Amino acid sequence: MLVVNRAEAKFAHRRFADFPKFLNPEDLLVLNDSKVIPARLHDLSGKIEILLLEKQDKFHWTALVHPGKKMRAGHNVEVAGTTAKVLEILDDGTRLLEFASPPDLEQYGEIPIPPYFNRTSDEQDRERYQTIYARENGSVAAPTAGLHFTGEILEAIPHTFLTLHVGAGTFRPVKTDDLSAHKMHREFYTLPASTAERINTVRASSGKIMTVGTTTTRVLESQPKGTLAEAIGSTDIFIRPPHEFHHVDSMLTNFHLPGSTLLMLVSAFAGRDLILSAYAEAVREKYRFFSYGDCMLIV
C-alpha cells in the first residue's frame, strides 16, 4: 500500500495489514457493497458476445454486443437458456434486448473480468472478483479498491455501506481534448438513511470520512453540500480537476489506467503533479497495477 500524504507531499510504503492504523475511532470508512453479476454471455454458436449492462425488468436489459453487425434491430439470438430479441439500437450503440424468459445467468453467464487480463474468466473469478462484503447484485465490474479487505481487518474499523452498481462506462477512456465533451454513463446508487446519518454524526463530531474506491467517492460527491440524506438515484458525475470535494477526507484506491476518468478523479483529490509523482514512485517500487494489484491510500 502506497500512502500519499497530501499536506506534506510525501510517500510511505506499508502493508495493507497496517490500514486500520490510518483511521481513528471517531472516523468512518464508507464502502460500496455492490456485487458483480455473471453478465457476459455467448450465444449458442459462440460467435456473438453479449455484456448485460442494466436490468430494466426481468425480461429487458441494455447490453453491449459484439459483433454489432450480427445484432441489428429485430434480430433474435438463442442465449442463456432463452431467446433474446434486439428491440432497439440506442444512441451510444448499446442494444435494448427483450428476453423470452429471464436469462439464466448463474448457469450460462461469465464474470466480466477486465479485458486487459487477456484471458477468459474462470470459476475462481466468481469469488476473487468480489469484495468480501458484496451483497447487492448489479455491477459488471468490481469496486476493486475493496478487494484488499479481509473480514478481520474490516471488523477492526468503524464502517458503513452504500451501493453503486458499476457499469462498463466507468472504464471508458477519455478520447477528447475537451474534457467537458466526455460523456459518462449513468450508474445507479443507493445511499441508505442509516449511512447518511452515520456520516452526518461523524462530521458533527469532527471525525473524518474515508471512502473505499472511486465508486463510493462518486456517490458521496454527487450529493448536495452540507447534511446528507437518504438518496436513491443515478449519477453521471465526472470528477476531474479542479473539483472541490465536500464529503470525502481521505480515499483508498487502486492504480488506474492512463487516460481514464478514474485517474482524473484521484488527480482532482490529490493534485495532478502529486499523483504523477506517486505513480512514478509505484513504478520504481514495482507495485502491481489495476484490478488485482496493489493500492494507494490518499490522506
Secondary structure: elements and pairs:
Elements: E1 2-5, E2 10-13, E3 28-32, E4 34-36, E5 40-42, E6 49-57, E7 60-66, E8 76-79, E9 82-89, E10 95-99, H1 105-108, H2 123-128, E11 136-139, H3 151-155, E12 159-164, E13 187-191, H4 193-204, E14 209-212, H5 213-221, E15 231-235, E16 250-254, H6 261-270, H7 272-284, E17 295-298
Helix pairs in contact: 6-7
Commentary on this structure:
This protein is of the alpha/beta class and 299 residues long. It has 2 domains: 2-36 and 129-298, QueA-like (3-Layer(aba) Sandwich); 40-108, Thrombin, subunit H (Beta Barrel), CATH 2.40.10.240. The chain is 20% helix and 28% strand. The strands form 3 sheets. The protein has a 9-stranded mixed beta sheet, with helices on one face. It has a 6-stranded antiparallel beta sheet with strand order 5-6-7-10-9-8, with no helix packed on it. Strands 4-11 form a two-stranded parallel sheet. Strand 1 and strand 2 (10-13) form a beta hairpin. Helix 6 packs across helix 7 (272-284). The protein is globular, with a radius of gyration of 20 Å. The model has no long low-confidence stretch (mean pLDDT 93).
